[in-house]
Amino acid sequence: MESHATDECAGRVRDREATRQRILDSARELFTSEGYTQVSSRRIAAHAGVNVALINRYFGAKRGLLAEVVAEDAVFPGIFEGDPAVLPRRLAEHLVRRAHGQSTPLQRALEQSAGDPDLQAVFQERLTNAIIEPLERVLDGDDARVRATLAASMLIGMGMVRRVEGATAMVRHDPDDLIERIARVLGCCLEPAAG
Amino acid sequence: MESHATDECAGRVRDREATRQRILDSARELFTSEGYTQVSSRRIAAHAGVNVALINRYFGAKRGLLAEVVAEDAVFPGIFEGDPAVLPRRLAEHLVRRAHGQSTPLQRALEQSAGDPDLQAVFQERLTNAIIEPLERVLDGDDARVRATLAASMLIGMGMVRRVEGATAMVRHDPDDLIERIARVLGCCLEPAAG
Amino acid sequence: MESHATDECAGRVRDREATRQRILDSARELFTSEGYTQVSSRRIAAHAGVNVALINRYFGAKRGLLAEVVAEDAVFPGIFEGDPAVLPRRLAEHLVRRAHGQSTPLQRALEQSAGDPDLQAVFQERLTNAIIEPLERVLDGDDARVRATLAASMLIGMGMVRRVEGATAMVRHDPDDLIERIARVLGCCLEPAAG
Amino acid sequence: MESHATDECAGRVRDREATRQRILDSARELFTSEGYTQVSSRRIAAHAGVNVALINRYFGAKRGLLAEVVAEDAVFPGIFEGDPAVLPRRLAEHLVRRAHGQSTPLQRALEQSAGDPDLQAVFQERLTNAIIEPLERVLDGDDARVRATLAASMLIGMGMVRRVEGATAMVRHDPDDLIERIARVLGCCLEPAAG
DNA sequence: GATGAATGAGGCTTCATTCAT
DNA sequence: AATGAATGAAGCCTCATTCAT
Questions:
Q1: Which CATH number among 2.30.30.60, 3.40.50.720, 3.30.460.10, 1.10.10.60 corresponds to the domain C16-71?
Q2: What is the 3-state secondary structure (H, E, C) of chain D?
Q3: pTM given for the model
């Protein structure tokens, strides 16, 4: 039993815009929490309390719904404003604090869409065994696990971004300089002490 | 339409191991280039030039095929051995040099599994518009684009890893220290000069 | 090749209940004449003149269809009411008169039971609820349950044998005499005391 | 892990007859305990420790294997000999005592897989040859065939009900009393005159 | 504007069987 | 005589979508 996105009386008036919005809200919520692929059109419709056909009517197709959800979402709301010098810290705080709550739809959907249940188990085990733990073993000092995990994040993230972005910045950049930069970042991930 | 994984005449001998391997090769190739979810059992079989039933016979289920593909792949072959001090650089070189070729199956499949074709276009545009370019605008100096992309990689990667790894290292770590570390890493990503 | 359950023109109206019923009718007919395992979802759908997906839509799964078919079938309609003293005769008449026609879906499916794990639960419950317990309620004295079970065995067994044996002894025998005999046997099953 | 039907050394000699027999033994055991439809050719072969293809080689098809299993099985071994007057009691004892153990392959397979088209012919012939006609031969008077058929119905029916109902009434009832009752019912089936 | 019935395509898996060794 | 690799057919189910109301 899904609960409706917004509480409205059963015999509500016919309001194109409101209906559209209710669908959008439901989609955002479900995509965010479970991923695009995992959520069927029917569930979105049921959650919104509307008919399935309306998704196609209003958004052309499921894909259109995603596009709209993603478009309206501010990934890092307000983070980019303010003193650039402390931008990294603002981002970090946002990430960590939010980590205990919810991601933004875009990120979440991106993350979640790797969510074929079949894949989860395989990846979890493999990510740990083939990347994080080997890294951890090489490291000295405290918190080797966290440091290894940070580096793993960078490694995975670069793959995703390179792929999604296609042949852009990173690919076109001078390889030697790129190596230099990445090495520095990874070194930073792996450094023992934070303070 | 699919070309066989290995070119051999149709009337080939019956060789369990060879057939198994051909299936494995086809799966790796297709998973790597299109993602687990996108590739059907039938296509893998067709690509390998064998009957679909053999996939289940030899690997139990499609999932088993993935497990094996992923298991046999050395994500960073040989990278973890050697002087830890230059580990970051070895990783970086591996990433960048390989960047012009192919990722490893694990990474690729992970990346690709976010690969519902529907999602690709949406994400590409959104990743650029909502993360990379805003970051870029805040930065001074040359190569702002590359620096922004590096930071975006870290942001995306952390989401993925946190999700796939479940409630592990990063989630259990002291938040304040975590923020400190991440901020430092992001700062490192965004730093203007490499040398 | 299949003839539709009900003859209606192809361009019929969209009526959920009617369609559901048409599927149910087709399933009953086919299950009854050929058995659950032998009849595929596709054939039921074809026979009903509808799309296969509707079976899952309306009944969850093939098994659900069987459950419903079995549930709505009154195995011995009205037989258990009336004077218990002549219950055996009423049953016998029902069996013999119907013997020239068809078994009920429950019996038929029970006979066919093929041990399909799907069926066990459905049958166990239905055999108890629709035959044994109604019989038990009508009986006086101790051991009503065992007596009812014996009678049920005879009822079920006659169905099986008639079916497997084809048009032989029982079918060719004089109906009135057959009724007489069966009534006596059932009476014997239901008799209170053994000694 | 299936255990082999007979213990033989791994490097056994090639012996057509022995192999055939081992397959037959495995089939009987599995058909009897799980039913024809539920047991796959592969399992039989594995259980016998031989190659699947041999089933087809020696028995033409799975069905042929069943036919042979059923043919060699004496449904009520020795029961039909002896004083006809106490035949019902002998049958009843056989049924009840065996109820705590195993049915014969024929009955078991019949109970479990009545609907499989493969089985119809086999069963029809076997039911007639192994139960009805032996019974008929023992009986005097008119209508021996019908009386035998009634008794056969009871025998078959009890097997089905016991199986479907699980460990209920009949199994829990006092065996001696149960034998008494069943003997009486069977005697009633076999009685010459209806009026 | 909204509904919901109906569709068609496609996915994974299982099985008895045949073919080449 | 025996093997085991390989096949083709079929089964159930799920989904996004379209059509008629």
A1: 1.10.10.60
A2: CCCCCCCCCCCCCCCHHHHHHHHHHHHHHHHHHHCCCCCCHHHHHHHHCCCCHHHHHHHCCHHHHHHHHHHCCCCCCCCCCCCHHHHHHHHHHHHHHHHCCCCCHHHHHHHHHCCCHHHHHHHHHHHHHHHHHHHHHHCCCCCHHHHHHHHHHHHHHHHHHHHHHCCCHHHHCCHHHHHHHHHHHHHHHHCCCCC
A3: 0.79
